[in-house]
Amino acid sequence: MNSSTKPTSSISQISIIFIIIVAIIAGGWGLSIYEASKTPQSDDKESIVEGENALNNGHYREAKRIFEEELRINPQNQQAIWGLKITHLKEMMGQAEFKETIEPLYEKDPNNASINLLLGESHLRTKQFDKSIPYFEKAILENPRLAEAHNDLAIAYMHIGDYETAKIEFLNAIDNSPTPKYRNNLGAIYIKQQKFEEAIKELGKNKEYPFSALESAKIYWRLEYLSQASTYQSQAIEWLNDKAIMAKTENQEPWLFEITPDNPIELYSPEEKKSYAYFCRSISLYLEGDKMGVENDLKKLAELTPTRSSNFALLLSNTLDKLVAANPNYSDEVAVYRKLYL
Question: How many structural domains does the chain have?
Answer without folding.
Answer: 1
